[in-house]
Specification:
Two copies of one chain form a homodimer. By secondary structure, chain A is an alpha/beta fold. The first copy, chain A, has three domains: about 160 residues, 3-Layer(aba) Sandwich (Rossmann fold); about 130 residues, Rossmann fold; about 180 residues, Rossmann fold. Chain A has 20 helices and 17 strands.
Chain lengths: ~500, ~500
């Protein structure tokens, strides 16, 4: 077999059987090899940021990596923003970047650039495969590295792909997640109580971890908070309801006010998203001690269960009751939008949340909706929502995906809609259309920037000309409608959820 | 003044008075400072690849840099593909990348990443400004560095921007372009003749260089060829017609067959775009000597003029006669498309060519059209055409811009249309709509990739669902029409050229 076939067979053998692809000439043997290995599903995207974001969304739902296929340095560049988000999500991801043939490298052809330097900024593991005989083994190493919760980038020269002499390599069995020693759990048990917060992230915000944490909370009076932007959180009726740390630093500080012990469980210490003049970026009070129950690489669920067993063996976790908001009527604003989502969210939904400023009321409105998964913008690089929704829908074809998307951010990776149409994915996108980079208007004030005059304001305004998301979606094959009242949104959202395949609703909100 | 004001005042003082921007929180003081320095024109884009490509197009037409404003590492990442093209075009460009405040850097906030590593892959000059008192001087150095024909990236921490104590710095006068010693010109004069090719690029493919080169050709029998993808070429009626080296390696080799001396003038030695199995990537015959009249950093025009004076003082350059093709009728194919463009191309047009496989007949069809500028895809990173057209139109508001754009490539930076609408730019975009990555079908065969079966073919096909470019353009505020016959294209092209502001024509071609 040739090198490309060895790569694909090794991937498939290692359980990586979906590839989000934007191929070019240097990847043509990989493309050709797809016909030889039907177990690999290749999903075409029109832009690399869609491919990398979709691979992120896929793995958040399956726990196993997808592959990407990107075209040299510029293709890697186009994929970097969502690889950055994937890195922050600790998503397992095998990033395959084609490169010039080894024999062509020194000629400095037009597409030559430093792929390795680019890859290093977002990858936990980078290797350039240098021999067809080794490319199977290199691929197996990439899969194993990805499985440790990181982006693994395999740079694949064209001649390593096209030459004969490849061999499939076996991917080693996944190592069990490291466990925390009992002594650590015992130490944490000693600081539980009313002035302590368990700060949850990673695996701790999926159902088993949340139940154990809520048991601790119920038995000891310890409070629970979640990191601001977890990769995947489970919530809704019958599950513990954990408040996410708010985005504005002053609100976050208020949540942490009086906390004497902050216990990290699969999360890093919270800091402000940005620095602001005269403000400390740390959020934890000066007299608060930060403890680590588990790092993101350790088994947070087991540690929480051990902690619950030790500190609150008989406590019953509090969970959210099944309760939906009334369907709103009249003006369509961010509150009505949230209520429509909460009232109609289907069973087992996957919610992808890049609503940003328009998402304020979502947590309250959906807490009693049927249990669902909630995927967020982990690394702050906007343009993640629609690709992540795409990948999540590929991962879970039997579950409805609801993609709540701010308008400005939508335009970074709007091409995702085409892949949703092509693959017939059951994604309902709601554009939170306030015709502005509304978050930046707040930031302009928050950084104390003087003026906010006309010329500055123009850089935050998306209204001239207005973006017509119905036309954009239709142009990429996704049926779309526009909602200007709460009733229209409800009706269109219900219809979109019932009909198979992708839909987009342009929810026209008051201008941001 | 604060740091942001010092940056903008220094830029404006140094002649950099256009900024293509995608700001975020860390750039809010820069945004606010725009109200204090009205000489700086800020142009909002919806995606960073549009900003960097527009800055490239702007500088190709003016010879002076524009600035960009990008948001941290992910914003830099989104801009990299077109910065790669700008690097290959030797475009002067000041790339301003906001970063976290210095005081925030160590907190590893979600958007933290290695901007410097990213910047290094596309920039000839990179600096992180560390003090408000120095940021004016850093900016002046960036402008001076850019002016040497490279991307200069200034990383601008938020607190360096927002703190007081900045001062405008003067940008040093531009150094004169290095001249080639007379001895080099004399040596080249000794090898001119029928088996010699002057291989032209950079400044040598603008009118003065072309005239001098054509004079040499007329007087000595030396042949002229241009690099495959010059940043900016001048051509049309009354100007010398110089063949570009073809893309397919076998065609390029045919052009170079029998050449004993290849003289580089502002161009690198030509090589194949990609490597192919069993093929040498070098294109120059083994028995051909490669000479350098000028490197891209040296004054090619002066050297060619000296060469003409020495070797062909009395010769008259051959120039293309004014002659337009007949307007075609009937089926709309790539030949008819080229003939429509050639027949109707207005005076002083700027043509931006990312037509790729659909552009085969364009050179012949337009050689006798009124003199025009032709901007091409310099670095092979697709998604350059529409941003470059946007920047060229900002640079030359009194000239019509014709953007000839392949469909697949269009989707990488389709957001450029919105900026064209917002700024009322006189850009006529013609989408060469063959519903395929047609170039890749050829490449799949060229690399000798086996199969080309159904699954491979699906990755090169854009037809399911078909992209509706009329809807996409309309959705971003650009009036659009669809042409399915040669007559329709001619009529729509003529109308679009007459009406002010941007237009898009979806030219439906036979499927690729």
């Amino acid at each position: 077999m040739n090198g490309a076939q060895a790569v694909i067979r090794t991937l498939v053998g290692g359980g990586v059987d979906v590839c989000f692809a934007n191929p070019g000439t240097s990847e043509m043997h990989f493309v050709a090899a797809l016909d030889d290995v039907p177990e690999m599903r290749a999903v075409l995207t029109l832009f690399e940021g869609v491919a990398t974001g979709a691979a992120d969304g896929y793995a958040r739902m399956t726990g196993s990596p997808a592959a990407t296929l990107l075209h040299l340095g510029p293709g890697m560049g186009n994929g970097i923003a969502n690889l950055h988000n994937a890195r922050r999500a600790r998503t397992p991801l095998v990033n395959v970047v084609g490169d010039h043939a080894l024999t062509h490298k020194r000629l400095d052809a037009p597409l030559e650039s430093d792929i390795d330097a680019l890859a290093g900024t977002v990858s936990g593991w980078v290797r350039r495969s240098l021999a067809t005989s080794q490319v199977g083994a290199d691929t197996a190493d990439a899969v194993a590295a990805a499985t440790r919760g990181q982006v693994a980038t395999l740079v694949l020269p064209a001649d390593v792909s096209w030459s004969e002499g490849g061999a499939r390599a076996a991917v080693p069995a996944r190592r069990p997640t490291p466990q925390v020693p009992a002594a650590v759990v015992e130490e944490i048990a000693g600081v539980l109580g009313g002035s302590t917060v368990l700060f949850l992230g990673g695996d701790a915000v999926l159902e088993p971890g949340l139940r154990a944490a809520a048991q601790v909370a119920a038995g000891t009076g310890t409070r629970l908070l979640s990191q601001r932007s977890p990769a995947r959180m489970q919530r809704g009726a019958g599950l513990p309801d954990v408040l996410k740390l708010p985005y504005p630093p002053e609100s976050a500080r208020k949540q942490l006010d009086g906390v004497r012990h902050l216990v990290l469980v699969g999360a890093a210490e919270p800091v402000a998203f940005f620095g602001y003049p005269g403000m400390d970026g740390r959020l934890v009070p000066d007299d608060c001690t930060v403890h680590v129950l588990t790092t993101p690489a350790e088994d947070g669920v087991a540690a929480l269960q051990a902690l619950a067993e030790l500190a609150a063996p008989d406590a019953t976790p509090q969970v959210a009751q099944a309760r939906r908001p009334e369907l709103p009527t009249g003006e369509l604003d961010t509150r009505a939008l949230a209520e429509v989502v909460g009232a109609l969210l289907p069973e087992r939904a996957i919610v992808v949340d890049e609503a940003l400023t328009s998402g304020h009321f979502l947590p309250t409105a959906t807490v009693g909706s049927p249990a669902h998964d909630w995927l967020t913008l982990t690394g702050g690089a906007i343009g993640q929502g629609m690709p992540v929704a795409t990948g999540a829908a590929v991962a879970c074809p039997d579950r409805p995906v609801v993609s709540l998307q701010a308008d400005g951010s939508a335009m970074y990776t709007i091409q995702a809609l085409w892949t949703q149409a092509r693959e017939g994915l059951d994604v309902t996108t709601v554009i939170c259309d306030n015709s502005a980079y509304a978050i930046l208007a707040g930031e302009l004030a928050a950084v104390g920037a003087a003026g906010g005059g006309e010329r500055a304001g123009k850089l935050l305004d998306l209204g001239g000309p207005a973006l017509d998301f119905v036309a954009l979606a239709t142009g990429m094959g996704v049926p779309a409608t526009r909602a200007t009242t709460a009733e229209e949104l409800a009706e269109q959202f219900r219809t979109a959820l019932v009909e198979p395949g992708p839909h987009l609703i342009d929810a026209v909100l008051p201008r941001g």
